[in-house]
Amino acid sequence: MAKLDQKQAVVNEIKEKLNGAASVVLVDYRGLTVEQDTELRKKLREAGVDYKVYKNTMMNFAVKDTEFEPLKDYLEGPSAIAFSYNDPTNGPRVLNEIASKYKALEFKAGVVEGKLYDAPGITKIAKIPPKEELLSKLLGSFNSPIASFARVIKAIAEKKAEGSEAAAE
């Protein structure tokens, strides 16, 4: 009975993490050295991403009846799971950075904002810049025409001021 309680606690832990997650990514971590895994975990922690290795059966029970249920088809072999909370691209981006450095780390699949992506799809998601960078680019694109308009208006006003000064003399 105690073993069943332990397993239920693990399933509940995974479910709790899934409830707050904007994205979840499954990876195959086989072949990573301890140093590489430590580097990966450190970078994920810095990005605010939870990364953990659970048994596939526990993850299978946890994803049942959630938006992450399509991941159950990818729960074969060693699997690690990364939960991103604030920015859905944080986990995929950091994992992709490490995967490009260490070929042993491979994407399996992921769910980003309710949509399932296979390994190539998650790789594409990983290339999306962070939310803050996208917002700053958007605001910059809004600001550029406004700033140009303001310079034109200022130049017209200065020209009129020069013209009225010349007429007054």
TrEMBL record:
GO terms for biological process: translation. Gene3D superfamilies: 3.30.70.1730, 6.10.250.290. One of its GO terms (cellular component) is large ribosomal subunit. Part of the ribosomal stalk of the 50S ribosomal subunit. The N-terminus interacts with L11 and the large rRNA to form the base of the stalk. The C-terminus forms an elongated spine to which L12 dimers bind in a sequential fashion forming a multimeric L10(L12)X complex. PANTHER family: 39S RIBOSOMAL PROTEIN L10, MITOCHONDRIAL. Forms part of the ribosomal stalk, playing a central role in the interaction of the ribosome with GTP-bound translation factors. This is Large ribosomal subunit protein uL10. The lineage of its organism: Bacteria, Bacillati, Bacillota, Clostridia, Lachnospirales. The gene is rplJ.
